[in-house]
Amino acid sequence: MKKIVAIANQKGGVGKTTTSVNLAACLAGESCRVLLIDLDPQGNATSGVGVDRDECDTSIYDALVGLRTVETLIRPTHTENLDLIPSTTDLAGAQIELVSADDREFRLRQALEKVPDDYDFVILDCPPSLGLLTLNALAAANTVLVPIQTEYYALEGLGHLLRTIELIHEHLNPALTIEGILLTMYDSRTNLSEQVATEVSTHFGELVFQTVIPRNVRLGEAPSFGMPISEYDRSSRGAISYRDFAREFLKRNGHGGVSASA
């Protein structure tokens, strides 16, 4: 049975898409079958796995508005075991088109019922907002993973996001759990990164993954080449960290998530 994981944070620049792409690729490298769905109209997850969004004539938009069934939108990537449903510029209009629909929060959940069961994981890369696309992801997901950067204002908005997750758990998706919080952009040369990491761990305890993703030049370069870091430079600190994270994720996944009402 596939597990659906939303990767969400309403703040931009926290490593959300980087985590979506590289967790998906590293899980694929661990012999899991993975489907990555790009729900961000910016389409960075699409280009990050080497797919030119300008050449895509269909996207997840088509499933959300009922034009296509989701299984017809799946395309392979150059990464073994990793498939993609891309984003295109059409997705930006989906929130407006769906705003008056009675089932607007459940369009993605309904669409994902058609995803083949031979996938182990479906990774949802959410836009940096708490709008209708993110609500659809949280209503469809089994778990939500929250990346936060180890920088000033890291906790800004996190409480609001967690309250939103709790409300969705209570009213829209009682199966939703919190997979955990991932610390990103960690810079061991600064006291600030250590202070933020300590503060987050103090506040959120077992929710915080032990693996920390470092600030890494090669990790920042990989998207411009349309490659996950595990393929762009598998010996880099960024690649090693995401492989470690994928293994920790798999271990934690075996024990289930943490209740969204926790």
TrEMBL record:
It comes from the Bacteria. InterPro entries: AAA_dom, DNA_Partitioning_ATPase, P-loop_NTPase. Pfam families: AAA_31. Gene3D superfamilies: P-loop containing nucleotide triphosphate hydrolases. Residues 3-178 form the AAA domain. This is ParA family protein. It comes from Lujinxingia vulgaris.
